[in-house]
Amino acid sequence: MSTNPKVSVILTVPSAPQNLKRAIASVLKQSMSHLELIVVGTANSGYGAEAAVAEFSESDSRVQYVRCESSDPAEASALGLSMASAAWVAFQRDGDEWLLGRLANQLACAERQGDHCYLVVGRLLQYMPVARTYMRYWHAATDSGRLDQAMEISDFPVLLQAALIRRSALVNTGAMFDPQGSVPENFEWCRRVIAQGGAAVSNEGVAVTYVSSGIKKPNHYLELFRQA
Questions:
Q1: Per residue in 117-157, pLDDT tens?
Q2: How far is CA 26 from the centre of its chain?
Q3: Are the beta carbons of 81 and 176 closer than 8 angstroms?
Q4: Cβ–Cβ contacts within 10 Å for residue 128, how many?
């Protein structure tokens, strides 16, 4: 494992992995290298996840794999969080691709906000090769860069794909959650996290999420987002 990591990345695999290697590689290539990556397999993910992780963990001590015998995604995320040792936590999804400067940019944004900042959210590109591609972002209440908490948090899983969160805020909620689920309990959990302190908005791009697999051809807009 990484010595004194600044960020713990939790990647739960609730079903058979599709593009797990791409997701892992984009985490390990971050410009901010002081991180740990905890991949949590479940009863529904089979052993494909463990095999994919082994290809990276053999040469990179920052990566570890743990298996949750339950098929409940909330239990899997709770297991990953219990193993996290860094002050900040980010959630990765199978197939998502992080931009190289994601963690460094979000940590810098949090430092500018001060110790009261518990969450930093950035821009997320939802790429759909056969439909419309969406840029997801959240608004700041003022020029200070604080998240406008009066706005409805209408898509909890998407918010988590783009967020960096203090581990203490996650632990203090005292409840399990599914970082990829949309049940009402998750929305309430998200509000409780934000209510613990300031939430900030970064205008930097953080990740590309591939809504549909099987990307066949290059996309100019996608490449510009990656390079921004």
A1: 889 999 998 887 766 777 787 766 555 566 665 555 666 77
A2: 12
A3: no
A4: 12
* pLDDT tens digits for range 150-191: 555 666 778 888 999 999 988 888 777 787 776 666 677 777
Contact 94, 13 (CB under 8 A): yes
State the amino acid at position 141 in one-letter form.
A
| Cα–Cα distance measured from residue 122 to residue 196, given in angstroms and rounded to the nearest whole number | 19
Tokens 């197939």 locate to: 95
Extract the tokens encoding 42: 């479940």
pTM of the predicted structure, to 2 decimals: 0.86
In this structure, the number of other CB atoms found within 10 A of the CB of residue 46 comes to 14
Integer Cα distance of 100 and 104 in angstroms? 9
- How does DSSP classify residue 151? S
Residue 160, classified by CB atoms within 10 Å of its CB into exposed (0-12), middle (13-18) or buried (19+), is buried
Q: Is the alpha carbon torsion for 178, 9, 169, 83 positive or negative?
A: positive
Burial of 157 (0-12, 13-18, 19+ CB in 10 A): middle
